[in-house]
Amino acid sequence: YPSNLQMEDSSGLRQAMCRAKGGAPGFKVAILGAAGGIGQPLAMLMKTNPLVSVLHLYDVVNAPGVTADISHMDTGAVVRGFLGQPQLESALTGMDLVIIPAGVPRKPGMTRDDLFNINAGIVRTLCEGIAKCCPNAIVNLISNPVNSTVPIAAEVFKKAGTYDPKRLLGVTMLDVVRANTFVAEVLGLDPREVDVPVVGGHAGVTILPLLSQVKPPCSFTPQEIEYLTNRIQNGGTEVVEAKAGTGSATLSMAYAAVKFADACLRGLRGDAGVVECAFVASQVTELPFFATKVRLGRTGAEEVFQLGPLNEYERIGLEKAKKELAESIHKGVSFIKK
Ligand code: NAI
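Above: inputs. Below: predicted complex with NAI.
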């Protein structure tokens, strides 16, 4: 393992020097949990992203193998691997963006909240590392239950004195990706032409698709609204059951995570008009965190958009979502405060 890493490092150094001469822009990105079901395809796709100059792959198992494999791809990013807690600080130092898919996934019959006890501790440890080694990095948090892990991360950063709400984003992109796909199927459109805002949170009834705001403008029958809302809210469970005990969504999640990370990097670069949905600190409702569209810029989520006009069906959904979200947020905050 060490000799493999040494080789990567020296060739990486030469590549980095070549790039410095050419002046190509690039960001340093770390993936924590890079050897997992999401982490591996996520690492592969990030290695193909031209905005990434350095890619750090951290996990408590199998990081060397994944790193050796991905480092052979003939794309620009220099890849380095980090194995286990003693290497966490090296993995994080100097990073612009940290993506966290570390933790256990659901099995059939489990809710995302059933993962709380294991994943809460993992997220706490990783965020303590971020606060120490790259306090200015943008954080994309994927580990479930996102409705609680984002408040946990916020409390860890507050304790460390590094909290900037703009830089902490819970990844709800998979809900948007699913919504675009399912709505396009019903409308007979190409999913790439469809934009469905999905607000609230990332679990069951907290996932609230705003079908009245779909672009291009369209209308649905009450049956279609019921079908689409249920399918979007239970898309994760559909995959968990189909995988029959071997895990939850990994490939579509990696795709969604890359789509979201790429938007964050374009924002960091200074591109105008980069807007995606994410679970962030928010004043849109009375809750301290809520998912809505946000504008991504050089400092993270620079603008949090309002919900826009809701119909009666969506207003009822919003009340249900807020009730469950309030409990999940409270659970995350108390985990750190106690
Ligand atoms: P997995 O079990 O295949 O991979 C998780 C990886 O995390 C493993 O390689 C494991 O070694 C690593 N890990 C465990 N403890 C760690 C630690 N302390 N530091 C670093 N790495 C650690 O799980 P999978 O399928 O990749 O899912 C990961 C997480 O993503 C789960 O919590 C899952 O619920 C969540 N998820 C979130 C979605 C979202 O939309 N936000 C969608 C799908 C899954």
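The first helix runs from residue 2 to 22.
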